[in-house]
Design brief:
The protein is of the alpha/beta class and 782 residues long. It has 19 helices and 36 strands. A seven-stranded mixed beta sheet has the order 31-30-29-28-33-34-32, with helices on one face. Strand 24, helix 14 and strand 25 form a beta-alpha-beta unit. Helix 2 crosses helix 3 and helix 8 crosses helix 9. The protein is globular and about 95 Å long.
């Protein structure tokens, strides 16, 4: 991928290294690439706290024999059946990958999935058999078993060998015996993984043995792994990163790895400080790296480690963080240490890598290492862009999936937009969804996900560019930029920030000053102070949809907002606003329900409930419903209203909350004033409820604005005479007729004629007290 016009000798050296990234080991099944290393140790257990039994390491010989002898056919499992696992990280999870994929299609699941997510996996894959860990005490295990029963999915229990790390037996009831199929081939499907499904239902990524075997060899060649290396794996083994980069590369290289679980930075440093196991490298995601770095910096020169290389993948690690790593693990200790930024995705592992022994550009993910990359001008165009021009990163090669699997819930084939047209000059290439460009040396510079790019009034803002600069702002430990909804511009820049321990919280003003080259209209308008940046199960920060996840409302044209939210993961607290004096305030979240209970002290048709449900902070999705709740046969209708009125209702609620708080009751008879009115205003979201109550005889003015906004005076005849009874389109009268509450021969008449007309005895008339008459002759009506 080097620029052919460049004469830089370093570029030529990188180009030569690129050419050496091949897959020299022949194979059919991916397990064929494991070398015959006999008595050499292959897999070690992590420290006892990760749940592995105290057992001896697994050697290469026994590992290969286990894979060869492993038999799923006795459980009725055939080559094309999908077998899921939901077991904790560890050596058994690693061995499952090799043994299961050699005989069928392997689908490792996150053991912490919700019941709904498990149900989706079982039906969408679909799953033939589920493997669970015997004795697993996670709360989700029982729910997974119940889901399997409902979907007729066979369950097998994995029992770990007490003597040897990684080995196990399977216990369960066999469902027949599958016939012996043909030997596994490169084109056979070996692994299926769901995408994250951030904006829609997840897609299934199918990977063949050829995809995995080539990908593993590409990564191993790039990193120049040797038999003497020892990898510390803390990546989850339900993710491609851990399976390919750590487990796969280690075993292909004839080296060993430690099957651990990530339990924070302090635990990781304890793992690599074990005297008998001196890890030489590890590969992980930015959130893990940052947690490790914080603990390493605390230790300073007392840090004990033997790491030579840290590989970053799955999300961008900002250069300032990489430089801190080089200092803490290398310069400060006078040790050789390299940080390798790389690029890969589930659909293609790998794509790019900085060459660890040549020139490393920390701001890039390096040149292509194995597959081919090109920059295209985006779907549906297929025009290749020159070096230096931003566009969509597209990739092709032996490690790239052939395409997503089609399922019934998909309205169209997901591969139409996912790949360039086969007839295009560059052929069929996977569109990664990432925006970037190739520099003069052939290194790929990522700008961000197209879905993560912030669209500020039609102009695009890259979150990665900003984050790199914001890390230098005093008080910022780590941060993530995201799109926050805005009334005028559509989106503005929001920043979720974890402040440094003991430091003063950064402000929006300070963040703006930390972006001197950024026009004011693109500087952050929303700041959220957090304990931990939210991330997905594989450690990627959640930029897409973060504002919605945290419940941050849309901003108007002028306001800048600072918020505070405590907790982490799924245990986030309630979002609070922070004013200039540091005081916390209430923030209403969505969906938001505003209700006005009119005349709760009265019965019959005089009591009505006005309910406005607003789904989003831009007030684009809403519904106003009015119900007469005191009648024997209640009438309920949906009433048309406008976005402007809904916004005004929200504004009024925010004002009332600030002025009166969440709980308030009107005073009675103060200064001789007594209002002949009774009503209750009830506002609620996921976290809280507002109750403001006006009792009959109170001295406080009724909420006139809210009554108008919720159309209290427009509910029609039969309730409070707010609409003329002679209107044949009166919604209440129409609804009453639908419910057979009005005699078919009755029509509404003007109020002035009520005295001269006989009272209709229809159920509606009796309930409401309104007068109706039989229809007059046609001539009289006209």
């Amino acid at each position: 991928m080097a620029d052919p016009k460049s004469t830089d000798p370093l570029t030529a050296e990188v180009a030569a290294f690129q050419a050496s990234i091949t897959a020299p080991t022949p194979f059919q099944a991916v397990c064929d690439i494991i070398p015959d290393a006999g008595d050499k140790n292959a897999i070690y257990a992590g420290l006892d706290m990760v749940g592995e039994p105290k057992a001896k390491p697994l050697k290469y010989g026994p590992l290969q024999k286990f894979i060869k002898d492993f038999d799923l056919r006795k459980f009725g499992i055939s080559r094309n059946d999908v077998v899921c696992t939901a077991i904790p990280n560890g050596a058994a999870a690693a061995v499952c990958f090799w043994a299961v994929s050699n005989q069928c299609v392997f689908a490792p699941l996150n053991p912490a999935l919700t019941v709904a997510e498990v149900e989706f996996e079982l039906t969408d894959l679909p799953c033939h058999t589920m493997i669970l860990l015997e004795g697993d005490t996670m709360a989700t295990v029982a729910a997974i078993e119940e889901s399997c029963k409902r979907h007729n999915v066979n369950v097998l229990k994995l029992v770990r060998d007490p003597d040897t790390v990684g080995l196990f037996t399977l216990q369960g009831v066999a469902k027949g015996t599958a016939s012996a199929g043909a030997a596994t081939k490169q084109d056979d499907l070996g692994l299926v993984l769901h995408t994250s499904g951030t904006t829609k239902k997840p897609k299934i990524v199918p990977l063949t043995h050829g995809n995995m075997g080539h990908g593993i060899q590409f990564v191993a060649s790039t990193l120049l792994r040797q038999k003497s290396d020892l990898c510390m794996n803390v990546m989850p083994l339900f993710h491609i990163h851990g399976l390919i980069a750590n487990v796969g590369v280690s075993l292909y290289s004839g080296s060993a790895f430690v099957a651990a679980t990530f339990m924070g930075g302090e635990d990781f440093l304890s793992q690599i400080a074990r005297p008998a196991l001196k890890a030489s490298w590890y590969s992980a995601v930015p959130t893990m790296h940052e947690a490790i770095l914080l603990e390493a910096e605390k230790k300073g020169k007392s840090l004990d480690h033997s790491l030579k290389l840290m590989r970053n993948c799955s999300a961008a690690l900002l250069p300032p963080v990489s430089k801190r790593f080089l200092k803490a693990f290398g310069e400060d200790l006078n040790q050789e240490f390299t940080v390798v930024p790389t690029y890969a995705m589930t659909e293609s592992f790998p794509i790019c890598s900085n060459p660890p022994h040549l020139s490393i550009k920390l701001s890039t993910v390096g040149p292509a290492m194995g597959p081919s990359i090109k920059i295209l001008d985006g779907h549906p165009e297929d025009k290749e862009l020159p070096h230096g021009t931003e566009g969509e990163v597209c990739v092709s090669g032996n490690c790239v999936t052939a395409g997503y699997l089609m399922r019934d819930h998909m309205s169209q084939d997901p591969n139409i937009e996912a790949f360039s047209l086969p007839s295009a000059p560059m052929g069929r290439m996977l569109r990664t969804g990432d925006k970037g460009y190739i520099d003069a040396d052939g290194y790929l510079q990522l700008v961000g996900r197209f879905k993560e790019i912030i669209n500020c009034g039609g102009e695009k803002v890259s979150p990665l560019d900003m984050e790199e600069q914001l890390l230098k702002v005093p008080g910022v430990e780590t941060c993530v930029c995201f799109a926050n909804p805005a009334e005028l511009l559509g989106e503005v820049v929001g920043v979720a920030c974890v402040p440094k321990a003991g430091a003063e919280w950064p402000t929006l003003k300070a963040l703006g000053e930390g972006l001197p080259g950024t026009p004011n209209r693109f500087k952050p308008r929303v700041l959220v102070i957090m304990d931990v940046i939210p991330k997905g199960p594989t450690g990627k920060p959640k930029r897409i949809g973060l504002a919605k996840m945290l419940g941050i409302p849309a901003v108007n044209q002028t306001d800048n907002m600072t918020y505070r939210i405590t907790g982490k993961g799924t245990e986030l607290g309630e979002l609070k606003s922070i004013d200039e004096e540091g005081k916390e305030g209430v923030v209403w979240q969505y969906p938001l329900t505003i209700m006005l209970d009119m005349n709760p002290d009265l019965g019959g048709d005089q009591r009505s409930l006005h309910k406005l449900v607003i789904q989003d902070s831009l007030c684009m999705d809403y519904q106003l419903t009015i119900t007469t709740i005191g009648m024997e046969n209640p009438i309920s209708i949906d009433v048309c209203t406008t976005q402007d009125l809904v916004k005004e209702a929200v504004w009024d609620i925010n004002r009332k909350t600030k002025d009166r708080g969440l709980q308030w009751k009107a005073k009675i008879g103060e200064n001789g004033k007594r209002e002949d009115w009774c009503g209750e205003l009830i506002v609620s979201d996921t976290f809280k409820t507002l109750n403001h109550f006006w009792d009959n005889g109170c001295s406080d003015t009724p909420p006139g604005k809210m009554m108008r906004l919720l159309k209290v005076l427009e509910i029609g005849a039969g309730v409070d005479m707010g609409m003329p009874p002679e209107d044949p389109n009166d919604p209440w009268y129409t609804k009453a007729k639908e419910l057979n509450l009005v005699a078919k021969d009755c029509v509404p008449v003007p109020a002035t004629d009520l005295v001269s007309n006989p009272k209709c005895t229809s159920p509606y008339a009796l309930a409401t007290g309104e007068y109706y008459s039989a229809p007059a002759p046609a001539a009289e009506i006209s």
